[in-house]
Amino acid sequence: MAEVCVIGAGLAGCEAAVKLAERGVAVNLYEMKPGRYSPAHSNPGFAELVCSNSLKAMSIENASGLLKEEMRVLGSVCVEAALMSKVPAGQALAVDRDTFSKLITEKIESIENIKVIREEVKSISELPPCDAVIIATGPLTSESLAGDIGGITGKEGLKFFDAAAPIVYAESVDTEKTFKAARYGKGTADYINCPMTKDEYYAFYDALVSAETAEVEEFDSIHLYEGCMPVEEMAKRGRDTLKFGPLKPVGLQNPDGTRPYAVVQLRQDDKDGTLFNIVGFQTRLKFPEQRRVFGMIPGLENAEYARYGVMHRNTYIKSPGILNAAYRLTESKKTAIYFAGQITGVEGYMESASSGIVAGINCAREVLGEEPAIFPVSTVIGALANYAANYGGKDFQPMGANFGIVDSSTAANVKTRDKAAKKRLVAENSLRTLEQFISEKNI
Fold first, then answer.
1. Which listed residue, 35, 233, 237, 277, has the most CB atoms within 10 A of its CB?
2. In CATH, what is the architecture of 3-157+317-441?
């Protein structure tokens, strides 16, 4: 029986392991927890969600929603678990983190072909002989293994900082000063809204930009990724930046019918509705400063924190020219080496999981003597793989699901101003193409 070593039991590693096992390949799945935790992890289970509990939009008229539907068609373990652990989040898919992780952990541990090995891998060379290796250690890859990867890829990896938002207990939010509503009245009223007057907003802004931040090694010399920009850094771009960003009041009204000047939103973080995270408030403020400054938000004056916002350094490799669109290292000779997850330069939970699906399918095909299956760029899952492999610019940055990287030629000649209609055409073509691809490649 062919045998593959998968390093890392995050979302990508779990998807890859399942795809290998489904095809009759024996899997050694290495996970360093609970023996060792990264600076951002604390749950011993697999597929731990750190930054947010939101998996973004559900509608296929949104690239994130389309990606999840493509993954569902491909039998994604992460999408399955997400739908089983979802919590109210309007038109987005958000999950109870613990339930999500528990479901995936139980799934992995129940599969006969997967052997879970709870130990840290510091070097690829220390692995037992196997037919291929999938490195899915994520953006918080340990220094020792990151150094080994640097030697394998032959190029210097990029580094950037990522941040997580605070989580508060729902019972500590002052409901007299907040209201539940959905933007434009679409969907159910799942978000807690903390409305601000003009004076409250600018007082909060002044406190935020002058608050004391925690020291983070190398912070001033490393890239800040736009997708998880600390709220205090975003605010320093201008007094109204937040008002047109995470605090935008568009589509929301106060209970008395007036429009707030700015709004801070809280999104449910667990299935029971006891925890809510402060949307868009990734931060590196010191913990006492978070209590003081965020306590100026109406309704959060006496908020109790289940978790303060934290910041950590992430790494990813310069994938273009190193990996192909199957996420395989092109220069690997003796043993095939694949990468999966955020370390490849895809950004986002589901994007990372999708790369695990592609890597797992193609790794299995290789060790079983089959030709690679390069996913069509008219699908989101294929477009992300193509971006990682073939991006031609000078400044390679993490990329999330978006229609800009998808081949949208099917809608190019449609004469309509209805952007949603065009996106639906692209989505419908993507799903048709994927079904045909699955049939042709016997996936």
1. 277
2. 3-Layer(bba) Sandwich (3.50)
CATH no. for 164-313: 2.40.30.260
Give the E-state strand segments of 118-230 in sequence order: 132-135, 158-164, 167-169, 179-181, 191-196, 223-224
What's the token pair of residue 210?
Answer: 């002058």
E-only strand ranges, 262-370: 262-268, 275-278, 305-307, 310-316, 336-339
Domain range annotation of the chain:
3-157+317-441, 164-313
Return the higher-pLDDT residue of 37 and 372: 372
Tell me how far apart the alpha carbons of residues 289 and 282 are, in angstroms, rounded to a whole number: 14
Q: Return the closest-CA partner of residue 22 out of 106, 110, 108, 113.
A: 113
Cα 374-427-370 angle, rounded to 5 deg: 15
How far is the C-alpha of 99 from the C-alpha of 81, rounded, in Å?
8
15 — phi, psi (to 5°)?
A: -60, -45
Residue 284, phi then psi, degrees to nearest 5? -120, 20
The one-letter amino acid at 384:
L
Alpha-carbon gap, residue 71 to 57, rounded angstroms: 14
Residues whose CB falls within 8 Å of the CB of residue 85, separated by 6 or more in sequence, listed in order: 95, 96, 99, 100, 103, 271
Of 28-32, 67-71, 332-336, which gets the smallest average pLDDT? 332-336
| Model confidence pLDDT, tens digit, residues 208-264 | 999 999 876 555 545 556 666 899 999 999 999 999 999 999 999 999 999 999 999
Give residue-wise pLDDT tens across range 393-405. Answer: 766 777 889 888 8
Let me know if 99 is exposed, middle or buried by CB neighbors in 10 A (0-12, 13-18, 19+): middle
**From residue 40, how far is each of 139, 246, 314 by CA, in Å?**
11, 23, 10
With residue 27 as reference, give the H or E element that holds it.
Answer: strand 26-30
- The first and second tokens of residue 147, run together, are 């150094």
Q: What is the dihedral of CA 31, 32, 33, 37, to 10 degrees?
A: -130
d(CA 311, CA 164): 6
Question: Please, is 116 exposed, middle or buried when counting C-beta atoms within 10 Å of its C-beta (0-12, 13-18, 19+)?
Answer: middle
The token pair that represents 153 in the structure block: 């890829």
